[in-house]
């Protein structure tokens, strides 16, 4: 099994765009930002959160940093950072989700998403937050 890519995922209280822009200025790379209003998730957040960042990615040859505004939850110390794993196979994501979830709590079960991936989240038995993503290959 190929080892998944690991990236930090930061959650902000409405200032994700400002923070990620700052990190971009400091670290360089390419910054991509998508708001809740630009996605099918728009109907699941309050009108105030529509212009918040659903997903941001700062990337370069040696860096991948993800970020998001909390949307419907309050950010507190302990839930502002998650470790995001990106997998290359459906078997890999399922096995790691089951293993890391032992004794922990699933916050979002593995399921297909509107962005063409399988995605899920959990908190392990040590309190570490994990995100799991497998980008599916488009049907031929």
UniProtKB/TrEMBL annotation:
<dbReference type="InterPro" id="IPR028973">
    <property type="entry name" value="PhnB-like"/>
</dbReference>
<protein>
    <submittedName>
        <fullName>VOC family protein</fullName>
    </submittedName>
</protein>
<feature type="domain" description="Glyoxalase/fosfomycin resistance/dioxygenase">
    <location>
        <begin position="11"/>
        <end position="132"/>
    </location>
</feature>
<dbReference type="InterPro" id="IPR029068">
    <property type="entry name" value="Glyas_Bleomycin-R_OHBP_Dase"/>
</dbReference>
<dbReference type="InterPro" id="IPR004360">
    <property type="entry name" value="Glyas_Fos-R_dOase_dom"/>
</dbReference>
<dbReference type="Pfam" id="PF00903">
    <property type="entry name" value="Glyoxalase"/>
</dbReference>
